[in-house]
Amino acid sequence: MNSTLQFQLRITVSPELADALRTDASYAAHPALRDILHAHHATLKCQFDAFADYVSEAERLGTENFPLYQWTRDTIENPEKKAKYLRSFTIYVNGDAVYGRDITDAMETQLLNLVDANGISRVSRFDTNPANNPQPPAR
């Protein structure tokens, strides 16, 4: 099963860097981060923005088809959680939210070198093994 696992990287950044990254998709506010992302054909998506997009889509198409709608809406409306997720960014590689071990290992090593440099406070790694991930909340 390990060979079929895929991974996702996320970074947590300062509020100031988060604002810059959310408003400028060229990532000019952090040239070293920009270079790593470009080298791996990667982009960032703010977790708060992803949650807000999910809520908007659910409200547009009908919330009954979106099992995490209420949890997600409650999350983005909670000021403490909003502040947390505004600082969290998922890394997409070639448009994909999960990717193989080789790209994950290479990018993670490079990103870890940026921690504490110009506002990056953490790099987190997740995998697709259901045993390692929380299950959706009950309705």
Automatic annotation (TrEMBL):
Name of this protein:
Uncharacterized protein
